[in-house]
Amino acid sequence: MDNRYVVPERQYLVNLSTDVLSITTDNAPNMVSGKEYLQADHTINSIIHMRCSAHILNLAVKYGLDCKEISQSISKIRYVNVSSKLEADLTAHQNACKEKELSVSLDIEIRWNSTFDMKDTAMKIFDSISKDLNDEKPEEIYS
After folding, report:
1. Distance CA 125, CA 143 (A)
2. How far apart are the C-alpha atoms of 138 and 121, rounded to whole Å?
3. Where is the chain membrane-spanning (predicted)?
4. Domain extent for 11
């Protein structure tokens, strides 16, 4: 087994049962298994396993973003970013209107606030984006 995934030898775990009161992890199965391994193999029976509330909140937000209306809105914003023509049109429109040149960064699943940041930037440059999307109604793009 790869040494990165092995719990240290017993000599390093002396008095672990009195030193560790709780473990906070995400909800990944390997973390749950690791905690169970420590309890089973090293007689740490009173250890408390706390599920990370930030991970739980992030999962709830991700679930909420899966609804049809929101996911369509996010898809349209992503489309502006990956379309070379729309990106060029957006830059040209911002320059013509003497607006600050902003672009929408794509969200990244492992960066928790990135979808919010992407939508926030899109709202700041809504006029430019809506022009590039043939003046579609705001509720069709962002609702």
Report:
1. 15
2. 15
3. none
4. 3-51
Which pLDDT tens digit goes with each residue over 90-139? 888 888 878 888 888 888 887 888 888 888 888 888 766 676 555 444 44
Q: Is the pTM of this model over 0.85?
A: no
Are residues 137 and 79 part of one domain? yes
42 in the same domain as 17: yes
Total structural domains in the chain? 2
